[in-house]
Amino acid sequence: MSETTSRDYSETLYLPVTDFPMRAGLPQKEPELISRWQEMDLYKRLREAADGRPKFLLHDGPPYANGNIHIGHALNKTLKDIVTRSMQMMGFDSNYVPGWDCHGLPIEWKIEEENYRSKGKQKPDLKNSVAMIAFRQECRAYAEKWVAIQRDEFRRLGIEGDWDNPYLTMNYDAEAVIAEELMKFAMSGQLYRGSKPVMWSVVENTALAEAEIEYQDYQSDMIWVKFPVVEAGGQDEAAAEELLDAAVIIWTTTPWTIPGNRAISYSSAISYGLYEVTQDGLSDDNWVQKGDKLILADKLAEEVFRNARITDFVKRRTVTADELGALTCAHPYRDLDLGGYQFDVPLLDGDHVTDDTGTGFVHTAPSHGTDDFEVWNEHAKLDLEIAASMDRENGTTTEYDAALKRWEIPFTVADDGFYTKDAPGFDSHQVITHKGEKGTANKANIEKLKEAGALIGLARLKHQYPHSWRSKKPVIFRNTPQWFVYMDKQLSSDQIEFALEGGNQVRTPDTLRNRALMAIANTRFVPATGQNRLRSMIAGRPDWVLSRQRAWGVPITVFIHKDTAEVLKDPAVNARIAEAFRAEGADVWFAEGAKERFLGSDYAAGDWIKIDDILDVWFDSGSTHAFCLEKRADLKPKRKVDGGNDYVLYLEGSDQHRGWFHSSLLESCGTRGHAPYDAVLTHGFTMAEDGRKMSKSLGNQVFPQDVIKQYGADILRLWVASGDYAEDQRIGPEILKTSVDSYRKLRNTLRWMLGSLAHATGETVALADMPELERLMLHRLADLDTLVREGYAAFDYKKVFHHLFTFMTVDLSAFYFDIRKDTLYCDPASSVRRKASLQVIEELFTCLVVWMAPMLPFTMEESWIARHPGADSSVHLQQFPVLQADWRDEALAAKWDKVREVRRVITGALEIERREKRIGSSLEAHPVVHVTDPELMAALAGIDMADISITSQLTLSDATAPVGAFTLDDVKGVAVVPGLAEGQKCARSWKILPEVGSDPAYPDVTPRDAAALREWDAAHKAA
Q1: Does 984 or 208 have the greater pLDDT score?
Q2: Cis? peptide before 527, omega within 30° of 0
Q3: How far apart are CA 206 and CA 503, in angstroms?
Q4: 3-state secondary structure 228-242
Q5: Are 879 and 853 in contact (CB under 8 A)?
Q6: CA-CA distances (angstroms) from residue 16 to 110, 760, 843, 870, 1013?
Q7: What integer pLDDT is reported at residue 3 of this predicted model?
Q8: For residue 506, which phi and psi values (nearest 5 degrees)?
Q9: Integer CA distances (angstroms), 605 to 271, 557, 587, 596, 832, in order
């Protein structure tokens, strides 16, 4: 048999065979797969396959059509794609329609910069209708360009959706619906024009919403200012007289607001005192002198005197809240020759006043702060009611007219940041320049306060201050006429009932605020903390400001009467506006003759004013449910609120609690009475891997385009899927290397399965006839099926990924596959064990590739096609497999938990032998395994532990182990004495056994290998 002994047995082994490459080459492979999906029209086939199923709609929060996508976009869109794909594969019609926000200031800025400022050209006069429309057309073209660029970038991430028919807020039909939604608010009386302090960007020349604000470090001037008492009331005349020689001290970080001061606020819940300076030897230039009397909050007095450079002072007495309410002060500028500051400054009790910092008094400028505005109007309302009552008795309007004058709110700062005539003496000074820098207003006011002898302290404060998130420049609060939606106006006689946090049911009036709070209570939030965050924002927000003083957007399509300012409410006019917008776009609002066109013959155009402000872009995006979800036949859901089972999810970053989630909620509640969504999912932000914010100056930015070019989109997607998206996500070179390493392990596991399945014949083995190890793997699949479905349903992708990753790398590669390699490579083709193993690997491959397809669509598609080739083949057309109920076997799993514990001790002992070079591979070993735990020994009954431990031989013993045997502290009752296998080494399987050569026809192999060779030779001889 010399031919046999010299034979090359490698050709007789069933080694893995596959064209699936070890090196992924994702940057090259992924674009090929995208082209394949487009050619087979995967999106259309998904829709056809899902026809008639319940809808699960992830409604896309529109990104802004301005610039290339960044890493935050990659996180956001990948999460959305995982949602959409997983829900489709779990039996829903999960149709993703991407969208874009196309209107707004950033695009206007870009047009002004690129088309005008950079070329030294004058910006068009937008009061001219022709120029306005031309400028808007430039904005439209710019947005169209970036929609096309971003669409390609999103598709490159592997995002599947209706890219040929996205929704755009600038589409004519969308503009028409947005206008219709606005007109619904007008018709229901929820829209009004008012004057309130709003955050104003001098740089951008427009009002800003809270969602357009970010807080940055800013250095402000702090001043402590005396307001001399000029009137004091109360029953105790002596006590009142004592206060006439005092001054109320205020503190502010906005000296520029002093010309707008009209009152001082205090709190009846705070203790106040009259303090006198007793310090001798003060220099003449000190702003506070001996004998000065100051009224301060007791808790803050010491701090105030320290800032005034005073060490010696005494409290003369307590000043009661009643006494404070009876005081009148003079404005610090009253005695300067400025004119206009001779009015009285009353003291008003306000809930917003605290003694945490400052002086316990709040300088109240109603045109420059929300709290100031509210407390001023609250007291004005009471005074006006009293005045009206007096006039009714006297038959005059004298008192009421005087009260109106008394409570009039000044407009002290203009759009450009310069003071107006309502700030006498300061009209040449600017608060913020057009470049966003500090103007001269603070300095001018500080100098005037010094001149008036009213300044007692001056310092600087570094603090968080509101900035525009676009221009990154500070904003100011200023009183401007704007269009608002009431939050607390009663909309019907109905009562709303909903559960508060904690489960208590409440009944409240039907207002927009209460509708929104009810909707929040009925909405699922992921993570759950988002509910409280949005609830608190809605509960405390002021009326919703809608107007912007810009050009590129949907106009506020209302007319007001020139004399009464009444809003025109005419369905026919509204219909003409909407019809025109659908046909020609919102530009027609600004065209010559638009007023006459829309008013028609029913109204005299001269009697009505056409409003040319535009809508805040958050109203645009807040209306997307109206012109996308409700208008497209393939999307229109029948949700629980409509008596159906369809489901709508909104998913965005956590900043959208004050943005898109917020505006969509208000828009839908105001027009429909409920939220546009059933669930809200939020993710964190992206940070550099050291936890710092990414910035160009730090050089720590990560661009998705660069990651895709180097590694491929699936590496980015793995990073997203494996992280806790509820927290801020870190990314950088080292983190990406970890993702690449994880990906490589997954790919190698898939490649091995594909290679092994090349030898599968499709023969099956009944479950009862399978070895325990195969039945254990099927049980584990049944376990994973539950975990995967629950994880995807809960949007817990980290859980899904890590369960699958651990299973593939630990349970499969390091356990099952490692054990079964000998069976698969060396057993006869007729071996039931081998057939069962191939059958189980087929099930493993199918389940794992389908389960991971939502997360890694490119790699799973490549894997699927390698196993199931064909022009129409795609893993993304599959549903999650429905597994056999009898695969689950808890008793078997419990038994094998014990088997694996024993195996772990054995492999630990062999690792030391290998490290000490006493063996080369585990097949050279013959360990003696002492098992003194009866339960563990019972679990090993019928198990070939040599096979399971990948050793040639193994002896089990229930005797006590000798001293020095290998043990593990956490596995009691198991000890291993390593030894060397005895016998000859099989030339085919490399096992060392005494029976090698017992078959004379094959003298250098084991009987098992001899049987395999005999089958192989017969099969090939026949061929």
Answers
A1: 984
A2: yes
A3: 42
A4: EEEECCCCCHHHHHH
A5: no
A6: 58, 11, 17, 22, 18
A7: 43
A8: -130, 150
A9: 59, 15, 19, 6, 91
Asked if 457 and 310 count as a contact pair (C-beta separation under 8 A), the reply is no
Q: Which two tokens stand for residue 4?
A: 């046999």
Q: How many helices (H) and strands (E) does the chain have?
A: 32, 34
How far apart CA 328 and CA 381 sit, in angstroms, is 19
The amino acid present at 387, given as its one-letter code, is A
Residue 383: partners with Cβ closer than 8 Å, 6 or more residues away? 403, 406, 407
3-state secondary structure of 216: strand
Q: With a cut of 90, say whether residue 236 has pLDDT above it.
A: no
Angle at 808 between CA 26 and CA 867, to 5 degrees: 55
Q: Residues near 208 by Cβ (< 8 Å), separated by ≥ 6?
A: 198, 199, 200, 201, 468, 475
Instruction: Sort 81 into a burial class: Cβ within 10 Å, 0-12 / 13-18 / 19+.
Output: buried
CA 552: distance to chain centroid?
27
Is 854 within 8 Å of 86 (Cβ atoms)? Answer: yes
Place of tokens 């409003």: 611
Token duo for residue 532: 């409280």
What percent of the chain is modeled with pLDDT above 70? 99
DSSP annotation string for 67-80: S---HHHHHHHHHH
Got the DSSP string for 866-892?
Answer: HHS-STT--GGGPPPP---GGG--HHH
Tell me the mean pLDDT in the region 375-387: 87
Handedness of CA 212, 215, 216, 217 (dihedral sign): positive
Strands 524-526 and 679-683 come out as parallel
Q: What's the Cα-to-Cα distance from 664 to each of 18, 299, 625, 671, 811, rounded to whole Å?
A: 51, 44, 8, 11, 46
Neighbours of 297 (CB within 10 A): 24
Query: Is residue 265 within 8 Å of 248, Cβ to Cβ?
Result: no
Please state whether beta strands 495-499 and 505-509 pair in parallel, antiparallel, or not at all (unpaired).
antiparallel
Residues 888, 783 contacting (CB under 8 angstroms) = yes
Per-residue three-class SS string for 131-175 = HHHHHHHHHHHHHHHHHHHHHHHHHHCCCCCCCCCCEECCCHHHH
Question: For 693, which DSSP code?
Answer: P
Tokens of 929: 């395994």
Please report, as a single letter, which amino acid is at residue 852: M
Q: From the CB of residue 691, how many other CB atoms can be counted at a distance below 10 Å?
A: 8
Would you state the pLDDT for residue 463? Answer: 87
Q: Which DSSP helix (H) or strand (E) runs through 1017?
A: helix 1007-1022
What would the pLDDT profile of 172-189 be if each residue is shown by its tens digit? 999 999 999 999 999 999
> How many whole angstroms separate alpha carbon 846 and alpha carbon 880?
9
| Residue 101 three-state SS | strand
Instruction: Give the chain's end-to-end CA distance (angstroms, integer).
Output: 23
Two tokens, residue 890: 């808890």
**Alpha helices, DSSP H only, in 604-732?**
617-622, 624, 660-672, 704-710, 713-722
* Amino acid occupying residue 532: N
Assess contact for 195 and 479: CB atoms under 8 A. yes
Distances in whole angstroms, Cα of residue 991 to Cα of each of 225, 835, 994: 94, 21, 10
3-state secondary structure of 972: strand
SS (H, E, C) 274-312: EEEECCCCCCCCCCCCCCCEEEEEHHHHHHHHHHCCCCC
Q: What is the pLDDT of residues 309-357, one digit of tens each?
A: 999 999 999 999 999 999 999 999 999 989 899 999 999 999 999 999 9
The residues facing 459 across adjacent strands are: 222
Please list the residues that pair with 679 across neighbouring strands: 524, 649
**273 and 298 in contact (C-beta within 8 Å)?**
yes
CA distance 231 to 345: 10
Would you call 548 helix, strand, or coil by DSSP? strand
